[in-house]
């Protein structure tokens, strides 16, 4: 005969054990715990994008809007920042390989990136535009003016600038230069006619170099947002980064940094 009392006690014990297991914290720490235990937030940066994240070769320090925000994010976690160099060509692979906790260097939110990695909610509205010599500003008033074999368009490899040129300017003479930060000077020197860039960067270089112009600054080809890039797999980390950015937007910090670095 089946002992009903023993069955009930056994079932109760099994339920209790399962319940306790569900309440026991996972032995595997998440990204937030990893960063705090390490004491360092690893931030990937190409270091070539004024005014977002730029490595000043004279001081050896990173500067820009994203640099300031990364420092504040680290402070919110009680840790310090350590920058990890990357390139636009290797940004995706480096992010997915876990070489850093986040990438912040003026990274455009795109569907392609979101499919492979996580991106925070967007911040700062900008668009694709051009830099050219001031003397040539009246020559380039539309996308059609750029899409000619006689126009030398220069971009850096692997990023959205190159993708834009390949997709939208098939008839131009496309020149690829490895160092994004060097392109504005090459345009000013006549080594190419136009640089495909973004409104944030164009505004900064026009301010810094009187030889340059950005004739389409107020009428960009696209509208985009930047995002903080990270590997998939930790929703709590993505939630925390989004929460942090929302708080800094609400308290006016992002507006102050935009006034300082961009406007």
From TrEMBL:
Superkingdom per UniProt: Bacteria
Entry-linked InterPro entries: SBP_3_CS, Solute-binding_3/MltF_N
Residue ranges of domain Solute-binding protein family 3/N-terminal in the record: 40-263
CC annotations in GO: cell envelope
Transcription listed as a keyword: no
Signal peptide start-end: 1-22
Entry keyword rRNA-binding: no
Alphabetically ordered keywords of this record: Signal
Pfam families: SBP_bac_3
Entries under Gene3D superfamilies matching the protein: Periplasmic binding protein-like II (3.40.190.10)
Main location as per UniProt: other
Family named by the database record: Belongs to the bacterial solute-binding protein 3 family.
Full protein name: ABC transporter, substrate-binding protein, family 3
């Amino acid at each position: 005969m089946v002992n009903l009392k023993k069955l009930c006690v056994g079932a109760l014990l099994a339920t209790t054990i399962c319940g306790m297991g569900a309440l026991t914290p996972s032995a595997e720490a998440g990204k937030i715990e990893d960063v705090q235990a390490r004491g360092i937030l690893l931030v990937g940066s190409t270091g070539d994008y004024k005014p977002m994240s730029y490595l000043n070769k004279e001081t050896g320090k990173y500067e820009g809007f994203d640099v300031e925000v990364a420092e504040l994010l680290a402070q919110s976690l009680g840790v310090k920042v350590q920058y990890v160099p990357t390139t636009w060509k290797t940004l995706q692979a480096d992010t997915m390989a876990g070489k850093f906790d986040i990438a912040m260097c003026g990274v455009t939110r795109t569907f392609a990136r979101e499919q492979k990695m996580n991106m925070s909610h967007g911040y700062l509205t900008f668009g694709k535009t051009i830099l050219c010599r001031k003397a040539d500003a009246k020559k380039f008033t539309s996308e059609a003016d750029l899409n000619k074999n006689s126009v030398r368009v220069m971009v850096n490899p692997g990023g959205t600038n190159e993708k834009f040129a390949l997709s939208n300017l098939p008839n131009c003479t496309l020149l690829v230069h490895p160092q994004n930060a060097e392109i504005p000077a090459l345009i000013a020197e006549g080594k190419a006619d136009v640089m495909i860039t973004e409104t944030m960067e164009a505004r900064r270089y026009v301010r810094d170099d009187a030889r340059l112009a950005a004739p389409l600054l107020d009428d960009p080809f696209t509208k985009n947002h930047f995002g903080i890039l990270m590997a998939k797999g930790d929703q709590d980390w993505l939630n925390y980064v989004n929460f942090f950015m929302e708080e800094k937007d609400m308290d006016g910090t992002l507006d102050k940094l935009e006034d300082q670095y961009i406007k």
